[in-house]
Structures are given as C-alpha cells and as structure tokens.
Amino acid sequence: MAILDIRVLGDPILRQATTPVTEITDELQRLIDDMFQTMRHARGIGLAAPQVGRTERIAVVDVDDDPMVLINPEIVQPTSAKAKGEEGCLSIPDIYADVERPKGVTVRALDRHGKVFEVEAADLLARCLQHEIDHLDGKLFLDYLSVLKRTAALAKWRLKSDDYPGYVRRVSLETPEELDEHQHPEEEL
Ligand code: GNR
Ligand code: NI
Hints:
- The chain has helices at residues 26-41, 123-136, 147-160, 176-181, and strands spanning 6-7, 46-48, 58-62, 67-78, 82-87, 97-102, 104-110, 116-122, 168-169.
- By secondary structure, it is α+β, with helices and mostly antiparallel strands.
- The protein has one domain: Alpha-Beta Complex (Peptide Deformylase), CATH 3.90.45.
- The strands form 3 sheets. A 5-stranded antiparallel β-sheet has the order 2-3-4-7-8, with helices on both faces. Strands 1-9 form a two-stranded antiparallel sheet.
- The protein is globular, with a radius of gyration of 16 Å.
- The relative contact order is 0.20.
- The mean pLDDT is 96.
- Bound molecules: ligand GNR and nickel (II) ion.
- Nickel (II) ion binds next to helix 2.
C-alpha cells in the first residue's frame, strides 16, 4: 500500500469530470486500498480519485467507522430539507466554510466487487457523500460560497498555496502535528 500525494486547489485535475469505471481491475483495487490509506493518514473522512491525480469515478468515505467504496456513484434522491454545516477539503488545507446542502441523500453506486448498492444517508455522511460526488464532477465546496466569502477564502488560500509547489501536498511527509493543524478550523469565513 502507499500513501499518495494529494493534489491541491489550482491543479486542473480537480476541475475535470471523471470517467465512469467499466471494469474493476486489480490495479483499481490497489488504487482503492491506497486511497483509504491516504485518507486515513491525512485524517480525512472522504477522498475522491481526482484528489490523488486519477480520473476514474471512484471515491472512498469513512464516517463513524463505516468505510465505504463508491464506484460510479450518483445521487438518486436528495431530501428537500437543507442543512448548513462546516466543510473542509484535503485539497484546500486550512480553509473551512459553512455550506448549505440537502440534509439527506440516497446514493447509488457499485461496491469494490462491482455490486450495486444504495445508501440512504443524513447529516455528516450525506454531506460527505455529496462533497465526494462533487469532486467526481469537478466541483469544490468553494463553488457554493457567496462571492464575498469565496473571495476571502481564495485570498487566504493564496498565502497558503506557496506551501504546495506544483499543486502537490505530500501528506506522507507531514508530521502528526502538521496533520492535526489541518483539523482545527480557525475563524469562520
Ligand atoms: O475530511 C473531510 N472532511 C469533511 C468535512 C465536511 C464535509 C466534507 C468533508 S470531506 C473532507 C475530505 C475531503 O476533502 N474529501 O474530498
Ligand atoms: Ni474534498
């Protein structure tokens, strides 16, 4: 297994739509294992393939110790009820903001064996699933912010982005302290 480099805001791969998976190869199984290892090392609750430089429509999530592989996921039904909650992204370290989204979603996907499943989720899991599916469509949580808040977030990011030459975040080299830093939201945008 391997801890993969994480692409950060500015890398064009984060804005590309992904390609649906047609065959689950051994190589994809290894990618999935590496994505879990990378997500855990970086202390994230989800990770989408473009964040590790891949264009396949694959994401992993782990909310409340329930690891889930999502291949070709789609939202089949959002709830009409909305909820606001704080989001961060491993590809935009140290930037946090409130995002309003459907409070619940039903997602259909293939598991790592290619078997179709549906998951009905609410609250944090629903938020995480929507965040990951957005990544697979080239979308980032910043896209939901008001112009004012997005501008503030981008100004803050511009200062941090010097730490990630080539839009690469080498999480394998980050110390536990540095990783924890990214877990502590500072001021609200
Ligand atoms: O670790 C993460 N936490 C998180 C918090 C609120 C909403 C979404 C997320 S996903 C994020 C990891 C990540 O960037 N996944 O793409
Ligand atoms: Ni993200």
